[in-house]
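Hi there. Long-time user, first ticket. I'm pasting a complex I've been working with (about 224 residues overall). I'd like to know whether the download I got is complete or cut off, because the file seemed smaller than I expected. Thanks.
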Amino acid sequence: DARVTQTPRHKVTEMGQEVTMRCQPILGHNTVFWYRQTMMQGLELLAYFRNRAPLDDSGMPKDRFSAEMPDATLATLKIQPSEPRDSAVYFCASGTDKFTDTQYFGPGTRLTVL
Amino acid sequence: RKEVEQDPGPFNVPEGATVAFNCTYSNSASQSFFWYRQDCRKEPKLLMSVYSSGNEDGRFTAQLNRASQYISLLIRDSKLSDSATYLCVVTPTGGFKTIFGAGTRLFVKA
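Hi, the file is complete. Here it is re-exported in full:
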């Protein structure tokens, strides 16, 4: 049963520290999405990639967030420096390049910035 | 106005009840529509896609009304296990910029 994996599952850090979240998409999927979920804002799309190329990262705070796909099996989301308002659950999802197809979500990284 | 709007609920219904959720979207050029389910502290999972002709999967029925720009989800014979948050999802034509609604919480009680 193919699944999207994310690490770490939980992260507690102090304000100002760098945070790196990793995602391994389902093998064969060529689109990868990063979402952030909070109680106040719900699920927000931060960035997405197709064939490892960033298509849209307009949902991401540019000054502190960066997303990359070093290879087809790894996507990363970095926050530097982190702030308490970044506390949220960050989900990675992957899918095919048919926008009518579903996205498969990973279990998420629960980030707390103190 | 939000691009995708849902009644946050919560909907509290007894087992066996029929419950319906609506979701409205603002972009008339939207192409793909889905309902996802999210359990507490879990990731969203696809419940069903929504087609123009409507579709049914067991106790669940989804419908799309393009003229009025809304989609609906009907759950018949509610089970305790249906308790979750139901997320309406819309994708624009030719794109991947998926937009999630804030979700509708459902509690099914014995």
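A couple of notes from our side: Chain A touches chain B at residues 31, 33, 35, 42-45, 48, 50, 55-56, 91, 99-100, 102-108 (CB under 8 Å). The radius of gyration of chain A is 13 Å.
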